[in-house]
Amino acid sequence: MKHLLSISDLTDAELAMVLDTAEEMHDVQSRSIKKLPALRGRTVVNLFFEDSTRTRSSFELAAKWLSADAINVSAKGSSASKGESMKDTLLTLDAMGVDAIIMRHAGSGSVAQAAGWVRASMVNAGDGMHEHPTQALLDAHAMLRHFRKHEMGSLEGKRVAITGDLLHSRVVRSNVLLLPRLGAHVTLVAPPTLLPSGVRSWGVEVTHDLDEVLPEVDVAMMLRVQRERMHGGYFPSEREYIAGYGLTAARLSRLKEGAVIAHPGPMNRGLEISSDAADSAGSLVLDQVSAGVAVRMSILYHLLAGNTPES
Amino acid sequence: MTNLTIAGAALADGSRTDLHIADGRLVAEAPSGAERIDADGLVALPGLVDLHTHLREPGREDTETVESGSRAAARGGFTCVHAMANTQPVTDTAEKAEHVLDLGRAAGLVQVVPVGAITKGLAGTELAELGLMHDSRAGVNVFSDDGVCVMDAGIMRRAFEWVSRFGGLLAQHAQDSNLAGPGACCHEGELSGRLGLPGWPPVAESVIIARDVQLAEATGSRLHVCHVSTSEGVEVIRWAKARGIAVTAEVTPHHLLLTTSELAGYDTTYKVNPPLRTDEHVESLRAALADGTIDTVGTDHAPHAAHDKDHAFVDARPGMLGLEQALAVVMETMAERLDWAGIADRMSIAPARIGGVAGQGRPLAVGEPANLVLVDPERRTTVDRAASASRSRNNPYHGRSLPDPVELTLFRGRITHRR
């Protein structure tokens, strides 16, 4: 593995390896001393053109627990507006000799563009509305751990509903590429205004009716809805959005026994997800966060541990 | 001024003749001391005319100047280009239009016809000095806010009314900015959804064309539609022409050849506004250019510096070069549908008529200005973006095999390009 730009970059073998290693890394997190020497002497840059709390800090922890040196570069705002091209920003960091650049940018495809310019390994930490592959991997990892712990098997045959602003979501695109490969049956749920064009060619089910889907699902994944979208006419009011698509306390009771709730965060409590749902026994939200560190350790390990700087 | 005899060239109608040129005009007899150019196997067409060129001067001389753009035009077989108004500053007064005219004359490689802005600063809110630009030395006939759409229908109506008294033409960049906002950069469809690029739906073009043809009809004025890119847009224009509305339209070379699938690798060279469409739209555009629903090819030659393209796709500047490969692309895409007379019409006669440019798009007959291009119908090349007269390198045809037709360009009897 040289880069992680998209879920589709991973072969089946690599995918299995990444998830297996994540499992091992997860155990490291529960130790009192968490440091592994695997990436000693390697340097990882978090290059975030967009705000992030959990993704950036979990990549930073992942790098540090593997003994890599990690620095954070915040390049907020469009580099275009500052006169420096995105390419210049990337070439500058690359020239410092870093081993991996973990990049988030509001522009779809930007991380793939960067991979064409630099020598370092590129990791996509979210590119616009395109993909967020480590989020999908951590979602899968959190689900797999949960099912295993409760002796419910793997993701094979499990039904996952992903609900919310799918049009603007990079998380949904990565999950649609990943979860079916692990055997899950995915249903996308959104109002017509928040569905991506061409979504019906994605090979998953698509519906506007959350209530019809909920009793069937093993995982209800709720995606963040930005309040600003209301002003763009994507939905009439928060009230109307919640009436159709919010995971309210009432809807919580429609979930079948053993079903779990996932959300990539940050949550809009009271909008797409009620506190009853977010804090319920079936909520995976915090498991997803801890899964994030394990998955990112695994990714960094596989990108950087194999090839020494000399090779 | 060169005295020339171009011997044995085929004309657009298929006849073969010797063309004699003296003092910038076609003459009946071989002038004394004329250089003889053997044009056996070559086709002579009237010099090409572009209604849609971005020359970037004043303001972005690092990406193109009137001189470098004129040179690129001459290499493409053009003898006249219309310099779009979205320079810095915008061409929205008589003085600025005359400045562009003078830069063109100083370069002396093609006839540079300034296009005036419809609204001050392209802001869409107040009319630019349309009549004063028309009455100036620049004699502006064509007005456009190209780059942005005049969204306010009331302003567009007043502009139509204002220019109707002198027969001015409004060239609209048809893009409803509510349907295709500033971020819209990819044809809305399966690919935009998959790539996560903001979609630019075809209706954002056709609803503006529908509005504007009705405004043109209501005001008795003339509309020209820039860079039509969709089947829907073509259908509205076809309807309007059948109704007798004074509307003309252009298609770009890139919309005749390239499709949205080029965007799959996020290469910003292919970012253009309106965006590249699908095969179905390309087919509609070719058919419309063949049947005359679309009158002309406008290059929308849009030079950009690499550092304005080396951004994330949504942040990169839209636009691509077009002058040097325009004829090649038309030959490549329209081979089955347009003969040489058809190409001469779409790329010279029609645009000269639409723009009201005297001395361009004329038959190659005795007494006419010697504006012509000599074309090799057989020669091909692999396009190299480095081999360009433009100051920019955003050439979408780089690495493609295309015709390489232009042997010689004559502008008012002067050789402005020779292979």
From TrEMBL, chain A:
<feature type="domain" description="Aspartate/ornithine carbamoyltransferase Asp/Orn-binding">
    <location>
        <begin position="156"/>
        <end position="303"/>
    </location>
</feature>
<protein>
    <recommendedName>
        <fullName>Aspartate carbamoyltransferase</fullName>
        <ecNumber>2.1.3.2</ecNumber>
    </recommendedName>
</protein>
<feature type="binding site">
    <location>
        <position position="54"/>
    </location>
    <ligand>
        <name>carbamoyl phosphate</name>
    </ligand>
</feature>
<feature type="domain" description="Aspartate/ornithine carbamoyltransferase carbamoyl-P binding">
    <location>
        <begin position="2"/>
        <end position="143"/>
    </location>
</feature>
<dbReference type="GO" id="GO:0006520">
    <property type="term" value="P:amino acid metabolic process"/>
</dbReference>
<dbReference type="InterPro" id="IPR006130">
    <property type="entry name" value="Asp/Orn_carbamoylTrfase"/>
</dbReference>
<dbReference type="InterPro" id="IPR006131">
    <property type="entry name" value="Asp_carbamoyltransf_Asp/Orn-bd"/>
</dbReference>
<dbReference type="GO" id="GO:0044205">
    <property type="term" value="P:'de novo' UMP biosynthetic process"/>
</dbReference>
<feature type="binding site">
    <location>
        <position position="132"/>
    </location>
    <ligand>
        <name>carbamoyl phosphate</name>
    </ligand>
</feature>
<feature type="binding site">
    <location>
        <position position="82"/>
    </location>
    <ligand>
        <name>L-aspartate</name>
    </ligand>
</feature>
<comment type="function">
    <text>Catalyzes the condensation of carbamoyl phosphate and aspartate to form carbamoyl aspartate and inorganic phosphate, the committed step in the de novo pyrimidine nucleotide biosynthesis pathway.</text>
</comment>
<feature type="binding site">
    <location>
        <position position="170"/>
    </location>
    <ligand>
        <name>L-aspartate</name>
    </ligand>
</feature>
<feature type="binding site">
    <location>
        <position position="135"/>
    </location>
    <ligand>
        <name>carbamoyl phosphate</name>
    </ligand>
</feature>
<feature type="binding site">
    <location>
        <position position="224"/>
    </location>
    <ligand>
        <name>L-aspartate</name>
    </ligand>
</feature>
<feature type="binding site">
    <location>
        <position position="266"/>
    </location>
    <ligand>
        <name>carbamoyl phosphate</name>
    </ligand>
</feature>
<dbReference type="InterPro" id="IPR002082">
    <property type="entry name" value="Asp_carbamoyltransf"/>
</dbReference>
<dbReference type="Pfam" id="PF00185">
    <property type="entry name" value="OTCace"/>
</dbReference>
<dbReference type="GO" id="GO:0004070">
    <property type="term" value="F:aspartate carbamoyltransferase activity"/>
</dbReference>
<comment type="subunit">
    <text>Heterododecamer (2C3:3R2) of six catalytic PyrB chains organized as two trimers (C3), and six regulatory PyrI chains organized as three dimers (R2).</text>
</comment>
<dbReference type="GO" id="GO:0006207">
    <property type="term" value="P:'de novo' pyrimidine nucleobase biosynthetic process"/>
</dbReference>
<dbReference type="GO" id="GO:0005829">
    <property type="term" value="C:cytosol"/>
</dbReference>
<feature type="binding site">
    <location>
        <position position="55"/>
    </location>
    <ligand>
        <name>carbamoyl phosphate</name>
    </ligand>
</feature>
UniProtKB/TrEMBL annotation, chain B:
<feature type="region of interest" description="Disordered">
    <location>
        <begin position="382"/>
        <end position="404"/>
    </location>
</feature>
<feature type="binding site">
    <location>
        <position position="173"/>
    </location>
    <ligand>
        <name>Zn(2+) 2</name>
    </ligand>
</feature>
<comment type="function">
    <text>Catalyzes the reversible cyclization of carbamoyl aspartate to dihydroorotate.</text>
</comment>
<protein>
    <recommendedName>
        <fullName>Dihydroorotase</fullName>
        <ecNumber>3.5.2.3</ecNumber>
    </recommendedName>
</protein>
<comment type="similarity">
    <text>Belongs to the metallo-dependent hydrolases superfamily. DHOase family. Class I DHOase subfamily.</text>
</comment>
<feature type="binding site">
    <location>
        <position position="273"/>
    </location>
    <ligand>
        <name>substrate</name>
    </ligand>
</feature>
<feature type="binding site">
    <location>
        <begin position="54"/>
        <end position="56"/>
    </location>
    <ligand>
        <name>substrate</name>
    </ligand>
</feature>
<dbReference type="GO" id="GO:0006145">
    <property type="term" value="P:purine nucleobase catabolic process"/>
</dbReference>
<dbReference type="InterPro" id="IPR002195">
    <property type="entry name" value="Dihydroorotase_CS"/>
</dbReference>
<feature type="binding site">
    <location>
        <position position="146"/>
    </location>
    <ligand>
        <name>Zn(2+) 2</name>
    </ligand>
</feature>
<feature type="binding site">
    <location>
        <position position="304"/>
    </location>
    <ligand>
        <name>substrate</name>
    </ligand>
</feature>
<feature type="binding site">
    <location>
        <position position="146"/>
    </location>
    <ligand>
        <name>Zn(2+) 1</name>
    </ligand>
</feature>
<dbReference type="GO" id="GO:0005737">
    <property type="term" value="C:cytoplasm"/>
</dbReference>
<dbReference type="InterPro" id="IPR011059">
    <property type="entry name" value="Metal-dep_hydrolase_composite"/>
</dbReference>
<keyword id="KW-0479">Metal-binding</keyword>
<dbReference type="InterPro" id="IPR050138">
    <property type="entry name" value="DHOase/Allantoinase_Hydrolase"/>
</dbReference>
<dbReference type="InterPro" id="IPR024403">
    <property type="entry name" value="DHOase_cat"/>
</dbReference>
<feature type="domain" description="Dihydroorotase catalytic">
    <location>
        <begin position="43"/>
        <end position="232"/>
    </location>
</feature>
<dbReference type="InterPro" id="IPR032466">
    <property type="entry name" value="Metal_Hydrolase"/>
</dbReference>
<keyword id="KW-0378">Hydrolase</keyword>
<feature type="binding site">
    <location>
        <position position="300"/>
    </location>
    <ligand>
        <name>Zn(2+) 1</name>
    </ligand>
</feature>
<keyword id="KW-0862">Zinc</keyword>
